[in-house]
Every structure is written in structure tokens, then in C-alpha cells.
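Sharing a chain and its predicted structure for anyone who wants a worked example. Both blocks are below, sequence first, C-alpha cells second.
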Amino acid sequence: MLMEVAEERGSEDGREEYTKDGTVDLKGRPVLRSQTGRWTACSFILGYEMCERMSYYGIASNLVLYLTRELHEGTVKSANNVTNWAGFVWMAPIFGAYIADAHLGRYRTFVLASGIYVLGMSLLTLAVTVPALKPPSCGNGVKDEDCDKNASTFQIGIFYFALYMIAIGTGGTKPNISTMGADQFDDFDPKERTQKLSFFNFWVLGIVFGTLFSFTFLVYIQDNVGWGLGYGLPTLGLAVSVLVFLVGTPFYRHRLPSGSPLTRMSMVVVAAVRKWKLAVPKDPKELHELSLHDYSNLGKFRIDHTPILSVLVATLIPSTITAQVGTLFVKQGTTLNRSLGPHFEIPPACLTAFVTIFMFISLLIYDRYFVPAIRKHTGDPRGISMLQRLGIGLAFHIIIMVTACFAEKKRLGIAKENGILEQNQTVPLTIFILLPQFALMGIADTFVDVAKLEFFYDQAPQGMKSLGTSYFTTSIGIGNFLSSFLLTVVSHITKKDGHRGWIQNNLNTSRLDYFYAFYAVLSFLNLLFFLLVAKSYVYNEDVDVIESNRELQRVLEPSSYGA
């Protein structure tokens, strides 16, 4: 049971009650608590996210193989093109968040961006289906390196134009949909605030179901039926997801645009310059006009100083690790024995399904068993703090890269023993030797992804929540660009002085084990940096903590939570 949370139907005296956090309907009018928001509204938002993630990963999960097989791009070029595109996808939400917070609001920004997103997906489907737009076929039995039929500049241009049109669309949808979901819970109502604690876990579970369908069914269709149907189904899924979201419109709570966050940040800088000679109190909370209790009574949020950008920096290396799943991990799978019986071969990208499966299992265990158990000892409604959760995930990333290093070392050893040195030769080793690194990535995502999303939303000032959520996507975007940079630099440096290089088109003569060991060292150094940041971090308290925690502890008793 994932959502058996009692829905409050008004105030205790039976009268209809308005929300206290300033949320309104689309026309700017106050909304009744009993008729809007909470899990009713979130069910449409979660439904959208599940279908949309199926659509996005239906394209992204197998993209590196399309670039290799159909556009004949090499290992470094195809991997970099995927991570550069993914980097743009995850960086674009900064602009979508700004437009939403400063001008249009989250709902209108989302709807406008969704139209661009659907158009981009439709054009991409046409680019792999219509004969004039798709690359010419080399015919059955022709090896990639022997094919002399290349896509024209126009065909390549249309394909990449569609990809980046999708990226622009996601820039408007991604930072606003999760923020809208969190907005459906009133922080000034203890019961709704309790429900909000589980929202981001359920959010990720919705992503899990959507991506699982992509990593299994859609990847199989693309590998064995064709790219036209394989891309057409995600396009249809996206259209359905937008329709699901629109159906829930009457139930949504909205926040009015609060003006440009750049203006407010500029005012802070100007004020700081003007008062730079004044002595700073030992307790930074003395800089506020009112106490936290007074802000809470007024229904307002106090903005405390938090080094949120330091945490953002600490999430960049983990994002580069995640980028390997859809690029080098998948490319490794193409060199291994993928047979399951005499008539069935596992598509290489299908192994990414195990990331989703293990994430789903670990999320259930975490939310249903770990949090209630540990909460009794820590007194924290979340069980452990957001940064503690993130730190555990970063430790898992070190284990992942060490595991990947040993798996690749084993693969190269078997290849050498059997004299397999050609690019398209299959190493007589089951593809499931890669399973541990995919499974561990799923467990790590339970800690890293959920903690990042919740942290950047929770710690962002009120009125800048979309921008705060975009920090989550920004860390992924920069991480993908950083992955491209590191892959290019390492490939170039290791080829100097006549050496073969660590990353070649022929993975059977490459040294990906060295590259993965390099990432393990980077992950360890990043963990040390994160521990320094986390040790000095002071959380932003947005409501009266003493009173709120007392209420939360009361409603989180076993009789009222997840019963």
C-alpha cells in the first residue's frame, strides 16, 4: 500500500477551510482545502510523470546505439553526443524555472512547454520513419564499419534538431511538474506536511514504472522491430501523459508568479555592499526582523542563509557516474553473449531495467521499513536527514565504479584468452556479468536522486521553488557535460606517445577498466568534499520547527501513518 493516507475533509468544526500557504486557483482565487490538492491532485501529476518518463527514456536509453548503428558514429563521438544532449536536457530547466517563477506561473509554463515537447517527439519519429528523412539502410549482414551509406547533412540536421526541440520542451516541464506536485500540500497544515514527506518517494516510484517499460518493451521493439515503431510509441505515450495532466486541472493548487528572483538576489547583493562595514551577529538568525515563531503565525516563510551551491557542486561527479549507464555500460553489453535460449537475445540497453527494478525495491524498503524504524531513534520525520541520505548514495557510487572496473577487467581477460581482438567479435561471457553495476546504481539512485530532488526543493526560498528544483536538473546537466569533457580528455591523453588509448571504437582492445578506476578515485575525493560541506551545513527552517515537529510526531504514530 503506497498511498493509504487519510484525506482531511475540512476543519475540525466542520466548516470549509481555505489553504494557509497562499495557493490559489488558475484565476487567482483562494482555494478550499477539501476540494483541491493533496493526493487527489497528485494522482494526475504522478500519472503524467510516469507516462512522460516512459517517453523520454524510450528515446534516451537506446540513443547511443542509434547513433552507432544508423549514423555510424564512433564510441567517443556517440557517447559524447548523448551526454551533450542529455546535458542540455537537464540544464534547460533553469530557464523554464525562471519563466515560471517570474512571469507565467508553473501551470502555464508547463502547458506551453508540453506543446513544444510533443512537436519535438513527433518530428523525431518522422526522422526515423520517413524515407527522405531517415538514414539509408546498408542491408542485412553488412557490418557497421563496412557500410558506405551515410546519412546526409540534412537528415542528420533534422534528427538533432528534433532532439534539441525535445530538450527545450523538457526545460519547461521538468522543473515545474515536480514543484507543482509538492505545492499540492499545505506546509502550514501538519497532516498535509506529513503527506508531503512521502511525495518525492512516490514521485520517483512513478518514474520507476515509466522507465521500466522503456528499458524492457520499448528497447526490445527498437532492436528487433524497428526505430519507427520504437519511437512512435513514446510519442503516443507523451501525448497521453499531457492529456492526463490536463484532466486534473480543476483539482490543482497554484502559486502566483512572485517576480524575477534575479531582482531579489540583486537587492541582497546591493544591501550587502552598502552594509559591509557593519558587524555581523554571531547568530545569523538575529539578522531577521521577526522570530521563526512569528513568521509561522503570520503564514510567511523565513529565508535563512544556506550554502546550497556547495551541495550542488558535490552532486556533479555523481551525475557523471550516472551518465555512464546509458553510454559506456550499454556499449559494454554489445560485446558480450546476450543469448537467452536459442532464439532470443537481450538488447544491451535492457540491462538498464535492472537500475529501475532495484531502485523500486529499495525505495519500497526504505519508505515502508527503514524510515519508520530509524525515526524512533532519530526523531526526524524523514528518518535521516536529506544530506545523510545523499551521503550514503555517494558512498554507493564508489562501490559501483570499483565493481564496474573488476567486471571490465574480467571481460578483457576472457577476450584475451580467446584471442578476441576484433571490434564486432562477441566475448564468450554472459552479459549478466554487468548486472551488479546496474543493480547497485538502482540502489544508489534511491538515496542520491530522491535526496537531491527533495533537498533542492526544500531548501530553496519560497517563491523560488521552481528555480530550486532546477538545481536538481542542473546538477545532472553539468554532470553530463562533465562526462563528455572527461571522456574526451582521457581519450586524448591516453593516446599520446603512440599508445592505444583507454577508449577506442573497439572495446575489446580498450581499457575501460582503467577509466572506471579513475572514476572511483574521483568519487572518493568527491565524497570527502561532500562530508566537509555537510558537516557545516545549517538547514533552512521554513516553519516553526518546534511546534511543527511536535504535530508531525503526533500524526506519524503507527496508528496514523502508513497503516
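Comments welcome. Confidence is low (pLDDT under 50) at residues 1-14, 542-563.
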